[in-house]
Amino acid sequence: MTMLRGQRDPLDDFFRRTVSVDDVDKTVHVAGTGPAVILMPEMPGISPDVARFARWVRDAGFSVYLPSLFGVDGAYPLAEARETIVRRACVSAEFRAFAGGGTSPVVTWLRGLARLAHAERGGPGVGAIGLCFTGNFALTMALEPAVIAPVVNHPSLPLDDPGGLEISDEDAAAVAERVARDGLKVLAYRFDNDRWCTRQRFAAYRALLGDAFDGRVLKAETANTNPPPFFRDVVGCAHSVVTAHLVDQEGHPTMQARNEIIAFLAERLGTRPE
To answer: Which of 60, 130, 147, 176 could form a disulfide with 273 if both were Cys (CB 3.0 to 4.6 A apart)?
Structure first.
């Protein structure tokens, strides 16, 4: 599906369903066949660029589960979203946007979604891809045994601590234990000048996970120079490697990152990309 820049994505090639976990209902957009991958949206929501990435994962032979966590599904990211969506999420009880808050409670719901997706789609396990605001959720979701392929893309939380991780001490110890026990690998991406996902944050992941953390850094000058207004005016730097700042040209570093993520999922989940 080809979308014009600035156009809303109707998401009409996804099946829209309501998923209940522990009596909490959320909308999830589902598409594809094969092992399941939970793709969590970045701020300010399931944008056309997030949906494009979901379709690439789907077309590589996976079932994509795309939960609606904030914003308007399919909306083109405008700068006004800072006031209407970001601020609301930062004070929501579901998220821990600032240092000292620990693991966001919404991750418990996402772990339940991973269990459900694994039961529905089978295979050795489930992939989890976080983006920006949800970036670290892919790591904390790994406390669900079904999650075996976590991808942490440009994690921005906590917003007020460039070297911090959005995770409680208890969950951090449990994740480190699972890495050692199960040989879990964590793939991660950021741009080198990203002020929301810094060098210090990747160093904190490395300190927690050791060699299990595969943090890859792209040059900022390779980023798309014409992202949507939210990323141009609010984010203000190269940030979203496989969505808003991706350059859709064969052989481009951001496209190579996309290919590497799909290959990682294929290796861990047992499906070979086309």
So the answer is: 60
